[in-house]
Amino acid sequence: MGSPRLAFVIHSVCSFRTLLVLLLWSLAITALAKPKVLASIKPLALIAQEVAGDQADIDILLPITASAHDYPLKMSDHRRLRDADLVLWVGAELESFLARPLANLPAENVLGSYTLDGLFWPEVDDHGHDHPGHDSVHQHSNGDPHIWLDPRNAAIIARAVAQRLGRIAPASAAYYAQNAERFSQSLQALDTRLLTQLAPVKSLGFAVYHEGYSHFVAHYGLHQLAYVTFTPERRPGAKHLQALRNVLAREGRCVFMEPYQNSRSIEEMGRSLGLNIGLLDPIGNDKVSSYNDLMEQLGQSFLTCLADGRNTGAHR
């Protein structure tokens, strides 16, 4: 019979080797695991996907039909927030319902876009009014939070996502950085196309459904006359609607609706004034699969309604 002491030593060595193999296997799995990014809205997810490529999993919190201004989180949504390695949102200026849940997460797990350095903002006068035809690099408090509608801001967001993902998955840091720079270069080409495409319609007046397009309007020098409502959840008053009608009657060419909004009365107003009816979607429908698609679709919507003279409204 063998020595009990020898048997114990052999057993201990085998157990140690087994534990070592399991530990190394666990570390390998952890190293190979893709970071999980949860974007609050689809446009941010599209930007993040450009950076992440196949080295991170991107998911979207809000359905495209939901309002980013006011959304009732479900228990499953809270779980998704906790499980994400990185939550990407604009900020309380847009998704105010997320402010409290995100405050309970580690700061390194949350990336807000609204406060990033270097963002471009529509110029605002001393009374807090946007100047749609002008923009600047200065931060404005209470500025339009739809920052992704300026491709220069999309590039800034992409670089911030690359930096944060690089901290979460250092082995892929260079990959993320290269993707962000490649995306930034593609945005320059996109920007040039849109500037050229929209130049012929810059002087034509229009109204948007809600005040969420100033980044796009300012950057491309378009002539926005008014908006129907400040946010989709706020019903316009009679005085505002009369002022809207008056300005559109004087110099309006088009009034834009939005998907998933009940705007038939505004459409009827536009038709009674002989205006073209357009449709703008700042979020992107199911067919939009990239940030460039989103912006090109938006540019085409402006061009179609302002230049072609064809009605493109949702209601027929």
Description:
The structure is a single chain. The chain is α/β, with parallel strands linked by helices and 316 residues long. It folds into 2 domains: 38-193, Rossmann fold (3-Layer(aba) Sandwich); 199-308, 3-Layer(aba) Sandwich (Rossmann fold). Helix content is 46%, strand content 16%. The protein has a 4-stranded parallel beta sheet, with helices on both faces. Strands 8-7-9-10 form a 4-stranded parallel beta sheet, with helices on both faces. A two-stranded antiparallel sheet has the order 5-6. The chain is elongated. Mean pLDDT is 86; it is low at 25-31, 126-141 and 311-316.
What's the architecture of the largest domain in CATH terms? 3-Layer(aba) Sandwich
Assigned CATH superfamily of the largest domain: Nitrogenase molybdenum iron protein domain
Distance between the termini: 93 Å
Rounded average pLDDT: 86
Number of helices: 10
Helix content: 40-55%
Element string (H = helix, E = strand): HEHEHEHEEEHHEHEHEHEH
Report on the biggest sheet. 4 strands, parallel
Instruction: Fill in the CATH topology of the largest domain.
Output: Rossmann fold
Output the structural class: alpha/beta
The low-confidence parts are: 25-31, 126-141, 311-316
Number of strands: 10
Global Rg:
25 Å
User: What percent of residues are in strands?
Assistant: 15-25%
Domains, number: 2
Shape: elongated
Q: Give me the side-by-side strand order of the main sheet.
A: 2-1-3-4
Give the C-level CATH assignment of the largest domain. Alpha Beta
Protein name: High-affinity zinc uptake system protein ZnuA
Family: Belongs to the bacterial solute-binding protein 9 family.
Pfam family, one: ZnuA
GO molecular function: metal ion binding
